[in-house]
Design brief:
This protein is of the alpha+beta class and 270 residues long. Helix content is 39%, strand content 20%. An 8-stranded antiparallel β-sheet has the order 1-6-8-7-3-4-2-5. The longest helix is centred in the N-terminal third of the chain and has 18 residues.
């Protein structure tokens, strides 16, 4: 069936032919797939097929198939499938071989990924950030510290932002723990390139660091987002660090970052 279909669309052009190849690969991921097999189905010489496939997809046939298998395997692990069964399904003869390929693709082991996704934690990426300044308010609190605390603050009692100052995004963070009670003060402000803050604002410099960055879906309301941020912080420290090889970099600062309709949590790691 697939052989006939691809032969029929060959005359329509490279994109259509490659699309049919993609569909064939996706439908037969649990089977051996070779470049020669696909080239024959498409009616091309092996050299011509491999050259066109790499030009369009950016990967060789083998690399494309491996990436797709690993992406599917990751989805099944996240759904609770066993690691060894998943490895065997996608053509890996050993747990070690599957783990090596999976770690190269996703930066963590299949077992850790399965545990992490099973816990329902959000996706993250590791990235380096340069030092930057934030101007904002230091806010006294009489409540337990939690993420999204901005949802409880009446900002009308604080100086107004200068016009357009928050174009680079806003930052929220907990600072200055009390030695006896352990309570924290809350800081909320805007990222800036200005030299000095306006009256009523304080300056914090966030040092350059490597971060695990967690992106959050904003949801339908500020209240829902505040609760999601608080839940994310709890999950990061109660679950995420137990599943990865990173440790918290205590010499740096963690914070929430808000820009336009995007929300992020930045956790310094090493």
């Amino acid at each position: 069936m697939w052989y006939t279909l691809i032969k029929e669309v060959n005359a329509l052009g490279y994109n259509e032919t490659m699309k049919m190849c993609e569909e064939y690969i996706a439908a037969h991921l649990a089977e051996p797939i070779t470049a020669l097999q696909l080239a024959d189905m498409a009616g091309y010489s092996l050299y011509h097929f491999c050259r066109v496939f790499k030009a369009i997809h950016g990967y060789s046939v083998g690399a494309y198939v491996r990436k797709l298998k690993l992406q599917n395997a990751a989805q099944e692990l996240a759904a609770g499938e066993a690691v060894l069964a998943t490895a065997l399904k996608y053509g890996y003869d050993t747990h070690a071989g599957f783990t090596k390929a999976f770690e190269k693709e996703f930066g963590t082991s299949p077992t850790a990924y399965r545990k992490l996704k099973g816990a329902g934690i959000m996706d993250y990426k590791i990235q380096n950030e340069a030092e930057f300044k934030v101007f904002g308010y230091v806010i006294e609190t009489d409540d337990d510290a939690e993420g999204g605390y901005w949802g409880k603050v009446d900002f009308s009692s604080y100086p107004a932002y200068p016009a357009g100052c928050d174009d680079q995004g806003e930052v929220a963070m907990w600072i200055h723990p009390a030695e006896v009670s352990g309570e924290l003060k809350y800081f909320f402000g805007y990222k800036t390139s200005d030299e000095a803050p306006a009256e009523g604002f304080e300056e914090i410099t966030i040092p350059a660091a490597q971060y695990a960055v967690f992106a959050l879906e904003n949801g339908d309301s500020a209240e829902a987002l505040a609760k999601k941020v608080a839940a994310a912080w709890k999950e990061i420290f109660s679950t995420w660090f137990d599943t990865v090889d990173y440790t918290y970099d205590e010499s740096k600062m963690c914070f929430e970052f808000y820009k336009d309709d995007k929300s992020y949590i930045y956790v310094p790691v090493k």
